[in-house]
Write a structure and sequence with these properties.
13 helices, two-stranded antiparallel sheet, Conserved hypothetical protein from pyrococcus furiosus pfu- 392566-001, ParB domain, about 55% helix, single chain, alpha/beta
Length: about 280
Amino acid sequence: MSKKALGRGIDALLKTEKRDFSSVIEVPLDSLVVNPYQPRQDFDTETLKELADSIKQKGIIQPILAESKDDGKYLIVAGERRVRAARIAGLREVPVIVKRFTEEEKLEIALIENIQREDLSPIEEAYAYKRLIDISKLNQEEIAAKVGRKRSTVANTLRLLKLAPPIQEALRKGSITPGHARALLMVEDLEKRKVLFNRILNKGLSVRQTESAASLFKKKVDTSKNKSLSLEKKLTPELKDIEQRLIDAFGTKVSIKGTNSRGKIEISYFSLDDLNRILDILS
């Protein structure tokens, strides 16, 4: 089944309907340097070996896309995976199309190339979107149009960056799935989120089990908040009277939280002088 074209596509970025292979040159592998905008951090060894075997038999069908550097080297814009496989295959040179690109185009092309193969991890994709937004100053909807994604997809992927580094690393390595990650984001309390994350790893919770646990965590937090609000709202007439007398005595906001048997008093101050004034009254 053919894949749907993403955004403008690499051909559109090259500003040509048909790639001009007459401009292809042979470049030594040692002269090619990695694109710092490459979103993919992990290259699967097995699939690289399969590609290397194919290159040995058929050569590199699609040239590498690169930009010339001042030091005589060539920056890989698209095709790092092919370059890695070519090294494994024992090639010394590879076909390259050399063009000039803006910083935004370098990242956009690298991102589109990887998304088209659908082998970027969700975290790698999230960081690529963020970097593209930082460089281009475009909003999520405009970024989505560029890479051929729905705005909601881009937004949900970017939300993964709110997860703690250990959780991001687990997602990048495949120890947890995007479904697990989205369920963890339901838990706003960071400590409780960490507890649930460890439970996923140690007990092998499914996505559905994680969602149920996250809902329980959220329900407990909401219940706790409601109890707190209930205590604040249900002051007895005696406590309301005492609260007002304290406000009059200290000349500032005073809150009583609790019941006739137990609770706490909060006295607000709004400057160091105000605090010293309150201390003088207390002493």
